[in-house]
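Sequence in, structure out.
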Amino acid sequence: MIAIIDYDAGNIRSVENALIALGEEVVITRDPEILLLAEKVILPGVGAFGDAMEKLHAYGLVDVIHQIVEKKTPFLGICLGLQLLFESSDETPGVEGLGILKGKIVAIPHDKGLKIPHIGWNSLSFPHEGRLFRGLSENAYVYFVHSYYLQAEEEEIVKATTEYGVTIHASVEKDNVFACQFHPEKSSAVGRKILQNFLSINREGN
């Protein structure tokens, strides 16, 4: 069973629909017992960093997420879900993220003549081999919607990057924790392959 964390964020249903289309049993929940028993857990989301952290605290989910990660359950953050895994965001200074991974979320510069938010398809480069991208070729296209981006502290965890005025850390992987700034559930065949790769990972990380 795949559990999607319910914290009133946007885009949760589209992730659910993508997983159901892949033949998975899916539950959207904030029940700690269900989340801790799940085979895999996904933290999706579209919205503001500070509001999201406030909701995670209000629903008692911060400690639960840390427990899921400590149990080595495969865990996937999507879009805002990626950002929340890190320490802080320029979107809401002074608000601490989950701090599961080291790094910060910063604003895409406005001085590059590019539209903000960044909405659309961009190609990926793979600086380090990542399990989410098995079977995909360099320059695979995925769909982004964001105004802020990740600067990871540990370069070796960055498995995919894209260019949008700056180099964006588009996907990270460390042990059982995976995250994508882009939306695999909206990224056609490439996105389906990424989700399938995540679904194939077991607790031993293979």
